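Sequence in, structure out. First:
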Amino acid sequence: MILLKMAVRNVFRNRRRSIITLTAIACGIFTLVTMRGMLNGMGRQSEMNLIDLQYGHMQVFNQDYYENPAASVKDSIEDPEKIIRALKDVDHVTAGVERLIVPSMVNFDGNDLTCLSIGIDLGQDEKVFKLKPTVVEGQGEYLTEGPHAMVGERMARTLGLKKGDRIVWKARAMGKEGGGSIQAVYLEVTGIISTGNPAIDGAALFIPLDFMQESLLAKGRASQVAIRIDDPRYLERAFLSAQRVLKPMGFEVKTWEEMGKAFLELHRMKKIGNGIMIGVFLLIIMVGIVNTMLMATFERVREIGMLMALGMKAAGIRTLFLLEGAMLGLMGSTIGVVLATPAVWAMEKYGIPIDIFTGGKDVDMGYPIRGVMYGDLSLELIIWSLLIGVLISTAATLLPAWRASRMEPTEALRHA
């Protein structure tokens, strides 16, 4: 208790020096919280985008279909309804929906563009995916049965498409022996969607499933059955349950994490890069704290000598300096967190327009998000940031504390 009182007195004795140190620590922690909050928010938003718009929580395929680059309609699931019925015995599954996905080509006004055509069940797709809110042109109409299509925003911009235009859609039909001729069909564009996901916005064409199956002579077939579960925390449990039920039937189950591992790896690398950048910033702050505490050590040589002459051991001197460093770290970190919390909360609630970072240009940031970028404020981030600030400040005090504890009392008392 005595050492703590002395540490408090020493911290506030030289206010100017303490204020400079606290400001440096607060700036470092403010940067840490805001940048981490922004990056975590982008990661969470991207994950939800992948789940809601591209993968669902899990997908079911015919055995080896997913890894087969030459897979076509003939390799698709013959009876997807059998899988959907079997999903009733899978833990945590709330819905399953079939989709037919084939490589294809679109022609408009003499321009060709390769794309991925996705046949969706208009009555059931919304139970797993959330495409409707992404419609930016043709709002409220969505898709209707028949020769209609929705296209991604980037794809529409590339071809110069707008709502109401008619495109020529070309894809290979299944045929009697599994491989058929190229089918060419006119489709009316009923909507344009903007998801922020380059795989969808730049190269996806959505067509009513029934019409697509009929056009490709693949009645009742589906490339995959996408699954939604009640709680993402139980993904592993649902995956194991789905495998147990579906694998004996000859089907393969993939989680969104496995299918989206390229994005997850990118996000992990960006977090590492962000951590290195913040680490360098905090290292600079750490050097400043070391310098401040060393100056305090030289100014208090006589005081340290007197304390040691009165019986304080070297361990007590080291503890005193470490307490001062920890106090500065806690105070500076608290200030930084207090200032950063409203900023990250505002990012989480209102978001930041991505145009601020891209200058209004169509730039792929590597994250499947669009329009507005949201932050993520968590108790874990706040506590972690406070601990980082205290640990760095305390660690920066180790050298000054060691030097102070190594002083000889008689020499220290003679110091002018």
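Second:
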Amino acid sequence: KAAGMVASITDERIQYRRSGDNRVISLSLLKQGLKLFPLVQEGDPIVENQVLAAAVPIARDFPCPRNITHAHYTEHLASSSLSERYASAKALSVFPASGDIDQALSNKLSDPDEHIYVKLEVAASLARHENEQGWSFIERCLVDEYLQNRLEAVIILGEISAIRSSEILSKVLMDRDQNPEIRAGAAWSLGELHDRSAIDTLIRSFVSVNQGIRAEAARALAKLGEEFSPEILRKFPQSQPIERPGISWALSKSGRFQLEDVINLMVDDDARQWAAYLLGTQDQQKFVHEIERLKNRDPEVYFAVTVLWKIMTSWIYGLEEY
């Protein structure tokens, strides 16, 4: 669980000295009746999360030849193995665009007998090469009669870091004629792209009556909150009451705000309630030294925050019946 140095190894246990506090940690080599075999030696430096012993061989690296060219993968696009064709289609996206590569991908995309998963990876590689054929195929899949193909299309868009990916996904998310599961998938993919331009779309989607769409949009907004909390905070005062639960949950998960940021959100009674939620769901120690400022500004919100802290730090919070 922590970096350090292997101190000793016996038949029964491994001991290592933890870097942070120089404490010796002892680990048993017998787990659930299985004998583990050390993968380190005395004196070895170790890093956090390193496997020190196991019942099976553990590889710390994956040797990979660096002399393979794009020709290897274009050739394997014709393999009889589905997994090889799939992997080759994905691998070709990391090579610089060229006539040979795009032609091979284009030929595979036109193959009527090819599996849809392979074709979507082919289309994604073409899209990364700024080839319109790839984008067009993905967009056609978004209106496919099979919902699974639509879902795969929105998922793959979440793997293509491009403005156009965000634009297409935003359009899908806001399309009320689209299947709710696909719209929810589009919200998830927008979170994977970490594109600040999606903030407005995700917030607007909170007016949806479908719980799945709102939930995925909130999760996506929380991911964006890790990088763009100031932008999301600025959206809050002008947002509709129906949008604020999702915004507040996302901000509370990111935790990237200060007390003054929350005070500035309190533009009406509804906003004051969500401000109390925002602070009340955070670690009390983060704000305990400046919470008096809130007490002077708004005693009611201060009271609500302290009540939430009391409840959420109690041992009964989250306790469930058998």
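Remark: The mean pLDDT is 95.
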